[in-house]
Specification:
This protein has a single domain, classed as Rossmann fold (3-Layer(aba) Sandwich), CATH 3.40.50. Helices cover about 55% and strands about 10% of the residues. The chain has 7 helices and 4 strands, in the order E-H-H-E-H-H-E-H-H-E-H.
Length: about 150
């Protein structure tokens, strides 16, 4: 079962893919977005993505690091967040319950961070492809039987 939408509006459809922060951060103009990230961007404007419950915190942490380094202003940060709020991004309600079992085991087996393993676990459990920019994560996804989202 999936949890509520992370943002305030609803979409009637089921999630189509698992969204990793590496793609969502590539939508921020201060980063150099790839063609892949732009294709995912176009898809998420009309469909639902699903993320582990930690997604918002991970995005905020990355954005804060950029802001703290002086590479982004408060207005740029707020504009980026407002843009993310426009998408249908659903938070998974089971991610925390699985953190100490399935997710940790996947992190150990695949030798990835627990954060990245949460995305792999979610994609495997829901039988959904993963939208990710991180080449190490996409290699581990393929080895774990998780397809990469093709927008």
């Amino acid at each position: 079962m999936t949890g509520p939408l992370l943002w305030t509006h609803d979409h009637p459809g089921p999630p189509e893919f698992v969204l990793h922060p590496s793609v969502a951060l590539a939508w921020w103009p201060i980063y150099r977005g790839t063609v892949y990230a732009q294709r995912v961007f176009r898809r998420v404007t009309s469909t639902v993505a699903i993320v582990p419950a930690t997604f918002g915190v991970q995005i905020a942490d990355a954005v804060r690091r950029v802001e703290r380094a002086g590479a982004a202003t408060r207005v740029q940060v707020e504009t980026y967040y407002a843009g993310l709020r426009a998408f249908w991004i659903r938070a998974d309600g089971e991610a925390n319950a699985r953190a100490w079992s399935d997710t940790h085991g996947l992190a150990r087996t695949r030798r990835v961070s627990v954060y990245d393993a949460a995305y792999l676990e979610l994609a495997r459990r829901l039988n959904l492809p993963l939208a990710a920019e991180d080449p190490t994560l996409t290699r581990h996804a393929a080895a774990a039987g998780v397809p990469i989202f093709s927008p």
